[in-house]
């Protein structure tokens, strides 16, 4: 498996699919029995069905304005991490969501485990420094 190729595909598809709220495109990135954790104290979403329900719920009140992902940083053993920043409107109010996603890929290049850490702020905000670490 080429972790770098899988990681680049993961961030590019997420970037386009988040902007379009294309849940099916996002699900194709994940192994059938994937485990997704959104924030450290939430119960994990296990399998594509639970992940799909979570993503649909996340998109339900959101109108996306702009989505950007960093180039992924690739580690060992199928691991990668990328930062993201989303400008959106939730229930008609502008918000900025910024965070990072950690991904473990299997031998076929599908995400078997993901973990997100993110924060939201009112309004559309740009970062105080560079958009992403390089």
Write the layout of secondary structure elements.
Blueprint: H1 3-20, H2 23-27, E1 30-38, E2 45-46, H3 47-59, E3 62-69, E4 73-74, E5 79-90, E6 93-105, E7 111-122
Parallel strand pairs: 1-7
Antiparallel strand pairs: 1-2, 3-5, 4-5, 5-6, 6-7
Straight-line distance between termini: 24 Å
Figure out the total of helices.
Answer: 3
> What is the N-to-C succession of helices and strands?
HHEEHEEEEE
Based on secondary structure, the structural category is alpha+beta
Q: Proportion of β residues?
A: 35-45%
The biggest beta sheet is recorded as: 7 strands, mixed
Q: Helical residue percent? A: 25-40%
Shape: globular
Number of strands: 7
Residue runs with pLDDT of under 50 for 5 or more positions: none
Gyration radius, in Å: 14 Å
What's the overall average pLDDT, rounded?
94
Structure description:
With 134 residues, the protein is of the alpha+beta class. Helices cover 27% and strands 43% of the residues. It has helices spanning 3-20, 23-27, 47-59, and strands spanning 30-38, 45-46, 62-69, 73-74, 79-90, 93-105, 111-122. Strands 1, 2, 3, 4, 5, 6 and 7 form a 7-stranded mixed sheet that branches. The mean pLDDT is 94.
């Amino acid at each position: 498996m080429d972790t770098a190729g899988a990681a680049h595909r993961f961030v590019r598809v997420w970037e386009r699919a988040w902007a379009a709220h294309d849940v099916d495109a996002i699900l194709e990135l994940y192994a059938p029995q994937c485990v997704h954790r959104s924030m450290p104290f939430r119960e994990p979403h296990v399998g594509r069905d639970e992940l799909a329900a979570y993503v649909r719920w996340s998109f339900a009140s959101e109108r996306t304005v702009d989505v950007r992902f960093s180039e992924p940083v690739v580690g060992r053993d199928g691991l990668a991490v990328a930062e993201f920043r989303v400008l959106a409107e939730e229930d008609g109010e502008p918000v900025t969501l910024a965070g990072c996603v950690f991904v473990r890929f299997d031998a076929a290049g599908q995400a078997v485990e993901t973990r997100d850490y993110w924060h939201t702020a009112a309004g559309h905000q740009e970062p105080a420094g560079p958009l992403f670490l390089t």
